[in-house]
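Complex record, three chains
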Amino acid sequence: MELRGIKLIDLLKSIEQKKISSIEVFNYFSNRSKKYNKLLNAYITILDSGSHVPISFKDNFLTKNIKTTASSYVLEQFIPPYNSTVVDRLIKSKLSILGKTNMDAWAHGSSTETSDFGPTKNPWDLKRSPGGSSGGAAASVASYLSPVAIGSETAGSIRQPASWSGVVGLKPTYGRVSRYGVVAMGSSLDSPGVLALSVEDCAYILKIIAGKDNNDATTSNEKVPDYLSLIKNNQTFTIGISEEYLKDVSTKIIENFFKTVEVFKKLGHNIKKIKLMDPSKSIAVYTIIQRAEVSSNLSRYDGLRFGNDRSFFGEEAKRRIILGTFTLSQGYIDKYYKKAQQLRTLIINDFNNAFKEVDMILAPTTPTSAFKLGEFEKYPFFGELMDKLNEPSAISGLPGISIPIGLDKNRLPIGMQILGKKFAESEILSLAYQFEKETDYFNITKELLKQYPD
Amino acid sequence: MKKILKFDKEYLEYLASLSLLSLTEKEKRTLIKKLEDTKEYIDNINKEPTIDVQPTYQVGNLENIYFKDGEINKRQLNQTEVFRNTKNKFKNYFSTKKII
Amino acid sequence: MKKYYPIIGLEVHIELNTISKMFCQCKSDYFNKKPNSEVCPVCLGLPGALPVPNKKAIEYTQMLAKALGCKLNTKAHFDRKHYFYPDLPKGYQISQYEEPFGIGGKFELKNKTIHIRRVHLEEDTGKLIHESNASYVDFNRSGVPLVEIVTEPDFDNSDDVKEYLEYLHLLVKQYLKISNANMEEGSMRLEPNISLTTSLKNFPNYKIEVKNINSFKYVQKAIDYEIKRQEEMLNSNKIIKNETRGFNEKKNITFSQRSKEEAKDYRYFPEPDIPPFSFTEKEFTLINLPELPYEKYNRYLKIDKLTEYQSNILIKNTVKANLYEKLSTKFKSKELNSKIANFVINKVLSFNSKLEDNLKAYLNLDKNIPEDIALQINKVFEENQKAVNDFKTGKENAIFFLIGQVIQKIGNKIDIEKLKTIIIKELKK
């Protein structure tokens, strides 16, 4: 049976129908992952054996008895004594751990280049970055080393690599999925999520991992609907587009964006122009909040109870910690941290106003397609600039999904994002699903797989 | 406390000690410039008007989340698990250099 | 010689006796347990672990705040307090800074009111043991709920401080029952801060904190020593800077520990992992406090008519107070209350089933005549006709025989004179 490119849910069906065994499926992905990892460096760890359909986990998700490093030398040999809730729920749903994917160390970045274990290459062009911080996750899915990948997003870390690597990337509402057992970066922002080649797989996984967790006080009591069936409702929506999100975006991306908008019009949706706050205003707000929380969350790494001492932090981590300490320090906290949280309120209100007029919002996911490795050195807060279009929704805790909508002149993927109200995952997944059914993403995902034979 | 307009070496060293980080001279030089650039950028937020705006520290709108005292402890670690990842075990303690 | 006024404030930490720790389900009863045996990812500060607050700990804190006359905040939250120390696993302590559970309470001394600035809740750190060549950390204590009670610097002498501490101890241990408050075990910790000023209009520009004091007696000595030491320094025109000092029990002196010249920058910000709390005034009115010491004292004094001395002793020992109340209820006599109190205070060494009998003996109650005495006497008359006739024919000594028979029958100790009078009365019928 030809497995390459098959959706996770179809793999599960085939196993049920006894067309193939789950162990065969596990071995298939494990072998592919091992085969291509030297080339792509998508994984930190690949497991040799497992009994169920496997999926890859970003290496900031704690996996019991399996090394978890957050791609940092500080945790180079850290073996967790417990599973993160996300891992636990997926294992209970009869999925296996395939491996731990590479990331920007501590999730500090948008290119996977700050990993202490080497950058991950973009499967579309090995000289380029797959995006970050969930770069390994995105690369593992794009090249079908794993059918689905678990990633996390603080602001852009799922959507941006999904866009740069040509896959579907879902960042759920903050509080929809438990953060227990995920190495903390920005506590008020972090959202575990999914990367896959299809919307159905995202829906399937989300249903398993979403829901209140007694070990995470910030998870919501909001009921978890049956996403997989809801997305097939074929609802029509009123969709907003804001000029502010089209500024400074490359021409080819804008072109593809409007082609996609036409598809939605054709499918019967109502497109409406709306006014949103300039996303550039979110950059400073996000930078401050994130770095303040990072500086705090990295305080537990002192080398006493586990891990290596603080001299093992990389330059990017040190820089973020020091800036975070600065924004929280006496005399500056009101000016920076508190002020940023006030602006956060304004950003949230801005979205709330927009959602009175529209059900969801469309925008390009990133201003450019994948950068060449090494280009990020140019800017001191490169990551934050790259994630400009993702930051406002991340700051507000809103869900967002990035879907591939074409390729640019350099044959690099272009992504578009759909933003929804809080806990409206079924709606944004629904719209994405309609697009997928209509266009099959213009065969982008299938095209890449030709380059990665079994 | 010091009010600074720019990041200088002394202030950087103070922040590094607050953060329990040690920096090489080279790192200090690179960091000063990068931090100064970032600071210049984030200073922009002070131009935005926020009079009477409440800060949002949490976007979840949750409140009063607790657990019930006396619940069974499902997460207790055994001795192997507690000490598995440390190089600093002595008898049943974590050892560290002497604190005066 | 100038006159100096002592300005003394007090910070007390009290470990709550909840079953679970503050932010996880590990047992908070850590004393004498094998080191690092009662820990989990949360209280060990492992990557990815998150805190969830213990409801009972918050309820206890609000109870204590209410008992101290505080205003309970309808909006409260936890904050992160950052500093590095081996016994602090996360590199920050979850505590309260801006919106604690209680503010603005008071404690009444005879001639003064001590204002309580705040009552807040936080987590305890692990325990550090210092040996000659290394230090060792045990995280069993990490995460245990800790209530901090801070007073304004309203004290001016060590006797008042002792009175306040004894009251707090009594309140949390015997009345609210929220803590073992054992100073040797560390479930109650005290930190006085002491300064001197020449004029009550001017606040001193320095503050000396004294830590690691293990008993109320030593707190008094430490404060008295500090007042003297500071007086001497100021009289020799020396400048006193902020400092943290320890107390040496053997020499009864304080000594310098570390300079607090630089105020520590704890970089407080609201704890993002724990949603804030919101309460209503109505909920606060429903917080049930037991009868508090001063309420009990007033009741004993004014209603039960006990003496000040007796009332004071009883309120400080709730086991005895409960026993007194039980016995007092049984005997239902206001006149006897004071005697019952004396009995409980002085005579009760252990508790046994003979208690009531012993009390009756103490009160000479046995010497009271039982109600059915007439019946018993007439029975004796029936059984001893000869003696009755003897008495009636003038043999007065026969009365003693009859008294003896009655006593045999009744089997109690009895007031013989009274009995004699009653028998004679019956004989004359």
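Note: The domain at 8-449 of chain A is CATH 3.90.1300.10 (Amidase signature (AS) enzymes).
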